[in-house]
Amino acid sequence: MTDTSIISVKNLTKMFGDFTANDNLTFDVKKGEIFGFLGANGAGKTTALKIFCGLSFPTSGEVKIAGFDIYKETEKIKKNIGYMSQKFSLYEDLTVKENIRFYAKIYGISKNEIKNKTEELLEKLNFSHALNERIKDIPLGWKQKLAFSTAVFHNPKIVFLDEPTGGVDPITRRQFWDLIYEAAENDITVFVTTHYMDEAEYCDRVSIMDAGRIEAIGKPEELMLQYNADTMDEVFLKIARQ
Amino acid sequence: MNKQAIIISGISKNYGDISAIKQLSVEIQKGEIFGLIGPDGAGKTTLIRILTTLLLADEGFAVLEGLDIVKDYKKIRKIVGYMPGRFSLYQDLTVEENLSFFASVFETTIEKNYDLIKDIYSHIEPFKKRKAGDLSGGMKQKLALSCALIHKPKVLFLDEPTTGVDAVSRKEFWEMLKKLKAEGITVIVSTPYMDEASLCDRIALMQNGKFMTVNTPENIQNSFKKTLFAIKSDDKFRLLNDLRNYEFTNSVNIFGQKLHYTDKRNNVSENDLLTWLKNKNHKNTETEIVKASIEDCFIEYMSREQLAVSSRQ
User: Fold this and answer.
1) How far apart are CA B42 and CA B209, in angstroms?
2) In 3-state terms, what secondary structure has residue A11?
3) How near does any CA of chain B get to the CA of A163, in Å?
4) How far apart are CA A194 and CA A165, in angstroms?
5) Is the pLDDT of residue A195 over 80?
6) Quick one: B4-214 is in which CATH superfamily?
7) Is B262 left (phi over 0), alpha (psi -120 to 50) or beta?
8) Antiparallel, parallel or unpaired: β B67-68 and B59-64
9) What is the pLDDT of residue A200?
10) Domains of chain A listed by start with CATH number
11) A136 close to B (CB below 8 A)
12) CA nearest neighbour of B228 among B303, B290, B304, B301
């Protein structure tokens, strides 16, 4: 982790008609940081996430993602980020190999590099035997690990994870976090939303949103101290019930 | 009067070559909140669908409030409430229409059983003219629960009612379940969230179609035999890797800000560990002996099962 900002958000506001989905957000994420973006359902997380990925424009405010301007350089942003969500990431009817190749080609990776990196990746995940299995036939935990690996296949500067780990057993969930830590060690910034409050504690820093605003931001241990709580779950409940 | 609400004996179910649940047996007491705790694919939904008479078991039998789940399925359907995983609401009907619909199916009215659902329904009543499809996740969950309760069931089945719901709504939901228990309703609830296990009277830890254990959360936690250390240092990832390669490590897992560690030796002290950490150049280290959580126990049971499988192969 360094002190360079990789995500810089200043006074970001997003309105839908009269409804303020994001209300004057200001925060920075440092390079190589694991940043948890938390909030109740409807707090405005997805709206902000779409803006950061270059899929939607703010109503006002300045946002820079990997040094690129959110208004003028959305295509450059897309090349420099990875994205994964629980709901959508891999094509169910394509095989493991086809999914990897599909994503790698979209990001313009050369044939040779795809071949080498695919072998490396399958070996790391212990997936070599499943190369020609269709995604719909492999277990959920494998899907999640593969989805994450394809999201960082092109070595993005930032990877956005939108509730990546629902429904898997505690061992598989931890194996997934191993991949996240490894990515962060390789200077990929990880921006993650989750409903698992213990996962919030795995993050270097977290922000907690409520009704469109960031109500708290900091290291998990600082927030627990500040809110006089033993767990992030308690912090979250205290903020949401204010 | 029988004390058991449900008796399950040797229930198995296969889908083609895949064995979804294997020889499950358990007795659930009246008025109990019984939790099925396990990940996707553990067999929670299959078991719930068999008990609600929506699916036939391949082997075994079950009795619910004295009724056979195969022979007496029509009677059983009148006395159970079922809230499936993806809330079975009619998206195009309003909140009120959904509730009236479920009431009329069970030949009752909203007014007749209003007392039972009042606490839950009052949260969404201001939106009763809104279509169910336009509700937030937390509100859908409350409506689905109201619909499952409108005929005053004796046994209530909830299949992952809190999945994808935020921590605040989850907390409120569990408070509601406690009130239902006070009304004498037996509740069978499945969840992948280990932290919700402690809110149940008894739980079954499920994995690969089997009950790894069935007991009270407290007894399961107390059955954790090894001394469990919570360890912390400035560089958690390096600490994790160092401990994984340490010759005396029995298990090491991330838990929030800390690592949970058990040692192969019997009499290891916090000081022994701190000395080793210092030699490995870890800064700002802290260790503490902690009580095992349900998640620690789940991991421990899973590892034991995996060991048993690999020793058989």
Assistant:
1) 5
2) strand
3) 9
4) 8
5) no
6) P-loop containing nucleotide triphosphate hydrolases (3.40.50.300)
7) beta
8) antiparallel
9) 86
10) 5-240 (3.40.50.300)
11) no
12) B290
Q: What is the pLDDT of residues A102-148, one digit of tens each?
A: 999 999 999 999 999 999 999 988 888 889 999 998 888 889 999 99
Q: Cβ distance A164 to A203 under 8 Å?
A: no
Neighbour-count burial of A74, counting CB atoms closer than 10 A to its CB (0-12 exposed, 13-18 middle, 19+ buried): middle
CA–CA separation, A143 and A100 (whole Å): 12
Nearest-CB residue to A41 (from B137, B195, B257)? B137
ipTM: 0.81
Beta strands B59-64 and B4-15 are antiparallel
- Domain segments of chain B as ranges: 4-214, 225-291
Two tokens, residue B106: 């069970």
pLDDT for position A1: 55
Cβ-in-10-Å burial (0-12, 13-18, 19+) of B290 comes to middle
Backbone phi, psi, residue A33, to 5°: -80, 150
- Would you state the pLDDT for residue B1? 54
| Residues in chain B, pLDDT under 70 | 1-2, 87, 312-313
Strand segments, DSSP code E, in B132-178 are 155-159
CB-based contacts of B9, cutoff 8 Å, min separation 6: B25, B60, B61, B62
Residues 6+ apart with CB under 8 A from B167: A40, A195, A197, A233, A236, A237, A240
Q: Taking CB atoms and an 8 Å limit, are B256 and A231 in contact across chains? A: yes
A18 near A169, Cβ under 8 Å? no
Distances (CA, A) of A213 to A61, B120, B152: 14, 28, 41
Q: A41, B303: Cβ pair inside 8 Å?
A: no
Fold of B225-291: Alpha-Beta Plaits (3.30.70)
Q: Is the pLDDT of residue A241 over 80?
A: no
Higher pLDDT, B196 or A241: B196
Residues in chain A with CB shorter than 8 Å from the CB of B136 are: 41-42
**Cβ-defined contact of A171 to B295 (cutoff 8 Å):** no
In the numeric block, which tokens belong to residue B92? 């195009």
Contact A201 B256 (CB under 8 A): yes
* Contact status, residue B273 vs residue B287, Cβ threshold 8 Å: yes
Determine whether the interchain pair A220/B257 forms a contact, defined as Cβ–Cβ distance below 8 Å: yes
Give the pLDDT confidence score for residue A141 in this predicted structure. Answer: 87
Q: What amino acid is encoded at B234 in this protein?
A: D
Mean pLDDT of chain A: 91
